[in-house]
Automatic annotation (TrEMBL):
One of the GO BP terms on file: base-excision repair, AP site formation
Source organism per UniProt: Plasticicumulans acidivorans
Matching PANTHER family: DNA-3-METHYLADENINE GLYCOSYLASE, DNA-3-METHYLADENINE GLYCOSYLASE 2
Catalytic activity, reaction form: Hydrolysis of alkylated DNA, releasing 3-methyladenine, 3-methylguanine, 7-methylguanine and 7-methyladenine
InterPro entries named in the record: AlkA_N, AlkA_N_sf, Alkylbase_DNA_Glycosylase/TA, DNA_glycosylase, HhH-GPD_domain
SUPFAM superfamilies: DNA-glycosylase (SSF48150)
Annotated protein name in UniProt: DNA-3-methyladenine glycosylase II
Secretion signal, residue range per the UniProt entry: none
Domain of life where this protein originates: Bacteria
Keyword Chloroplast among record annotations: no
Enzyme Commission code: 3.2.2.21
CDD domains: ENDO3c (cd00056)
A GO CC term attached to the entry: protein-DNA complex
Key words, A-Z: DNA damage, DNA repair
Length: 301
């Protein structure tokens, strides 16, 4: 396959697949630097196997039609690899049916699940994208996190085609001087953490892509927690967006707690410990429940 050729792939979608929420997640950056949504089409700039590319998805009522086009030279992707990427990106392997069957009759949650039946968690294209986005968003608002994300993409400046830039991979982030990240608005601690994880991906200490095959959740958790600047929220968010693991307890997420307060009809602010206790009953789907709470308040991070 030459760079001018597109690698195509078509997948059937579940009957209840919710395209609108997926597109809303990728539309969250109003400047559309690395993702552009038009009608039922998504274009996303990404780096796969070290090569910049543009992934185009077209949705109809029953299928998604994809094309992957390399910017310079063809990377190491074939039909099977592209199909696997699509299933990952769209969350098609998530056990949402089990969650809905188990908790559809819950007195406080049942009506929400009925309204949002079929909701899946949109996943990042790669685990590194999920991890770096989680680090970027630590303890700041979604708007502030999107601004930092935008500046990171611009600082790396990897063209994807179709007027888009790529979300950077570990190599692109590791190549940035610390001063560039600081000038982009990253704090000293986030700069240090981003550079550390990028370098550890390159030297194999954090085998993020390899872990996609077996998803050794506790190994991933312990390796990430060993990195200075990474705590439980960052780990659970990375496991959700990067690996499709649905049981991280995102009780530390402010948007989750606000939505939970509304769901429970409480006049009192829900604290992290209260949210943790309430979410515990919904294992092994605690992170999927968090996604329902995000969707309830339209603040998908």
């Amino acid at each position: 396959m030459t760079p001018a050729e597109a690698l195509p792939c078509t997948l059937a979608l579940p009957a209840n697949f919710r395209v609108a929420e997926l597109l809303a997640f990728h539309r969250r950056d109003s400047q559309a630097l690395a993702e552009r949504v038009e009608a039922q089409q998504l274009r996303k700039g990404l780096i796969l196997h070290g090569e910049p590319a543009c992934l185009q998805l077209e949705f109809d009522t029953t299928q998604v039609h994809a094309e992957l086009r390399w910017q310079h030279r063809a990377g190491h992707a074939d039909d099977g690899a592209l199909a696997a990427l699509l299933r990952h990106l769209l969350g098609l392997q998530q056990d949402i049916e089990g969650f809905e069957a188990r908790h559809g009759g819950h007195p406080q949650l049942g009506a929400l699940l009925a309204r949002q039946r079929g909701l899946r968690v949109a996943q990042a294209a790669t685990p590194f994208e999920a991890l770096s986005w989680a680090i970027t968003g630590q303890q700041i608002s979604l708007a502030a996190a999107l601004s930092l994300r935008r500046r990171l993409i611009l600082a790396c400046g990897v063209a994807a085609g179709h007027g888009l830039l790529c979300y950077p991979d570990a190599r692109a982030v590791a190549a940035l001087p610390a001063e560039t990240l600081r000038q982009a608005g990253f704090s000293a601690s986030k700069t240090r953490t981003l550079q550390s994880v990028a370098q550890q991906v390159l030297d194999g200490t954090l085998a993020l892509d390899d872990w996609l095959q077996t998803r050794p959740i506790e190994v991933i958790r312990q390796r990430l927690l060993a990195v200075r600047g990474i705590g439980p929220w960052t780990v659970d968010y990375t496991l959700l967006r990067g690996y499709g693991w649905l049981d991280g307890s995102l009780h530390g997420d402010a948007a989750v707690r606000r939505a939970l307060q509304g769901l429970l009809g409480s006049t009192q602010r829900i604290e992290a410990a209260q949210a943790q206790d309430w979410l515990a009953a919904f294992a092994p789907w605690r992170a999927l429940l968090a996604a329902h709470l995000w969707a309830m308040s339209s603040t998908a991070a």
